[in-house]
Amino acid sequence: MFGDMMNMMGKLKETQKKVEETKKRLDTVLIDESSHDNKLKITLTANRTIKSIEIDDELLQDKEQLEDYLILTLNKALEKATKVNEAELAAAAKEGLPNIPGMDMFK
């Protein structure tokens, strides 16, 4: 019994380490998103840190239009990044989870 508990604790620590490594790696995964007409381009990491924003000069003439473009394009980029982030972290956690009764929702 005690050996099983120690083995489980070891696997949990190993899983935690894999999750942390995955988080660091996701800082290097870049997500690109553009407006439908390519007047606005956004790049962010899978950890949802904005890396760059490119704005066409035409959008700089209309504040309200630029704000709309930013909201729409940032939301699309954040949605993509969140999907990648959640999938990668779930895979890292699932890989190392010990077989605990009742915790099969992660499998």
From TrEMBL:
| Keyword DNA-binding applies | yes
Indicate the segments annotated as coiled coil, or none if absent: 5-32
Q: Which domain of life is it from?
A: Bacteria
Going by the UniProt record, its keywords in alphabetical order are: Coiled coil, Cytoplasm, DNA-binding
Pfam family of the protein (one): YbaB_DNA_bd
Q: Which GO terms describe its molecular function?
A: DNA binding
Gene3D superfamilies with a match to the protein in the record: Nucleoid-associated protein YbaB-like domain
| Signal peptide (UniProt feature, chain positions) | none
Record localization: Cytoplasm, Nucleoid
Bilayer-crossing regions: none
Single GO cellular component term: cytoplasm
**Known function:** Binds to DNA and alters its conformation. May be involved in regulation of gene expression, nucleoid organization and DNA protection.
Q: HAMAP family annotated for this entry? A: DNA_YbaB_EbfC
Per the similarity annotation, which family is this? Belongs to the YbaB/EbfC family.
How does it associate, per the subunit comment?
A: Homodimer.
NCBIfam families the UniProt entry points to: DNA_YbaB_EbfC (TIGR00103)
> What name does UniProt use for this protein?
Nucleoid-associated protein SAMN05216261_0786
